[in-house]
Design brief:
By secondary structure, the chain is an alpha+beta fold. Helices cover about 45% and strands about 20% of the residues. The longest helix is centred in the N-terminal third of the chain and has 14 residues.
């Protein structure tokens, strides 16, 4: 993993979760929200509640990989019930030009 991506992961890990997957589990609304946030930020933090893991009947790591595959994003890290997703943006505003404050919105 390159140095810039590692630093972004550290910044995201310190802030609150961008998306929380609740008792309904992984459904279209959550997937759309994760896609939207990834387009805005490029890297996001997602938290799964215990009820989500129970509903999906999957291990937390399997569930994180499943979500990453659905969104076609890179799974950077799984810590507890929280995971970090990264998706390279092809738009003109790249991650290096973005303000760090946007990661805590």
């Amino acid at each position: 993993m390159n140095r810039k991506l590692r630093r972004l992961k550290e910044i995201v890990q310190q802030g609150p979760a961008d998306v929380i997957i609740g008792k309904k589990g992984v459904y279209e609304g959550v997937i759309n929200e994760i896609k939207r946030r990834l387009e805005q930020k490029g890297i996001i933090k997602v938290k799964m509640l215990k009820s989500c893991i129970a509903v999906e009947n999957k291990d937390r790591r399997e569930l994180a990989k499943y979500v990453a595959q659905l969104i076609d994003a890179q799974l950077l890290e799984v810590r507890g019930r929280t995971f970090v997703l990264y998706k390279h943006c092809l738009s003109k505003s790249s991650l290096r030009n973005r303000d760090v404050k946007r990661f805590f919105m």
